[in-house]
Design a protein that fits this description.
Strand order of the largest sheet: 1-2-3
CATH superfamily of the largest domain: Intergrase catalytic core
Helix content: 55-70%
Strand content: under 5%
Structural class: mainly alpha
CATH topology of the largest domain: hpI Integrase, Chain A
Shape: elongated
Oligomer: single chain
Number of helices: 13
Length: 301
């Protein structure tokens, strides 16, 4: 990669990390997208990112569409448009070449969502497993209850510290995407599960535990992949519950809150969405579920 591109990528990564506070995983993905663009641009004689044109970007886009799915391409287009906008704002380019770059249309699939009775069966099973007194099982129950009660992301849950939990007020302080902080309430079942977990948490504490609310079996802060494994094992024992990951509990919480009559703005705040448009997805989920119920139940449907 040309030196000018290397310098631009380094500056862009610094902007993503310090200016937008994105996760390291997202930063790696965005930087990789720009490096692929740099390879194509360099082959076309563009050795300085400030000289990018829409024609070069369209050539890059055509090559991307030959190699991968429209969904992946759409994500990469969004990444490159963020990059070219940053070039323009930073004075490294006279114009924003990516402003007119059109992303491929990707049909928006509705997320997998549990019915309320399915969510109840899952949490009942987690509670039953915790009856054996195993600290790990108490942890699992508290994890799943909190994820469903609050709709927080699994990464946000894994990052929680003891000080983030307000047991009297039944709220948890969450640091979300872009380091946006929000306070999310939870109900009595999650509160009881957390109380039980905190009683047995010392059994897993080790030198590396620190202030982490949820611990792995060896005492370190729990890894989000462990949460996924726990959930998958439980779901396999419930024939009426579809195979899901932790994010489906977030989808389910949002949908069930909306079905209970919550305002869309309140759900946006609960989930920590920067845009209301993202939250509106759940109105489509709720409507589709309503239509399914209508068609099953109404004699003249």
């Amino acid at each position: 990669m040309q030196e000018a591109w290397e310098q631009a990528v380094a500056g862009y990564v610094g902007h993503l990390r310090d200016g937008r506070h994105l996760s390291e995983h997202t930063i790696r993905a965005y930087a990789g997208d720009v490096r692929r663009l740099a390879d194509v641009a360099s082959d076309l004689g563009v050795v300085d990112p400030g000289a990018l044109t829409l024609t070069v970007l369209r050539r890059w886009l055509a090559l991307e569409r030959e190699a991968t799915s429209d969904k992946t391409v759409a994500r990469r287009v969004a990444s490159i448009r963020t990059f070219t906008a940053w070039l323009s704002r930073s004075g490294l380019a006279a114009t924003d070449a990516g402003a007119a770059l059109v992303s491929p249309k990707v049909p928006r699939r509705l997320p997998t969502v549990l019915r309320q009775d399915q969510a109840a069966h899952l949490l009942d099973l987690a509670s039953t497993r915790a009856d054996d007194g195993d600290p790990v099982h108490h942890r699992d129950r508290a994890l799943l209850e909190l994820l469903y009660a609050t709709g927080i992301r699994v990464g946000e849950c894994a990052a929680l510290d003891l000080a983030d939990l307000d047991r009297d007020g039944r709220t948890v302080r969450v640091l979300g995407k872009g380091r946006r902080e929000r306070v999310v309430p939870f109900g009595a079942p999650a509160s009881a599960a957390l109380d039980d977990w905190l009683l047995v948490r010392p059994a897993l504490v080790a030198a590396q535990s620190g202030a982490a609310l949820f611990l792995g079996a060896r005492g370190g802060r729990i890894d989000p992949r462990t949460v996924r494994t726990v959930l998958e094992r439980l779901v396999r024992q419930l024939p009426d519950v579809p195979q899901i990951g932790p994010h489906a509990l977030r989808h389910s919480a949002a949908t069930h809150v909306l079905e209970g009559g919550a305002d869309l703005r309140h759900v946006q705040e609960l989930l920590g969405h920067a845009s209301l448009a993202t939250t509106q997805l759940y109105t489509h989920v709720s409507f589709d579920r309503l239509r399914e119920t209508f068609e099953r139940a109404h004699p003249r449907a």
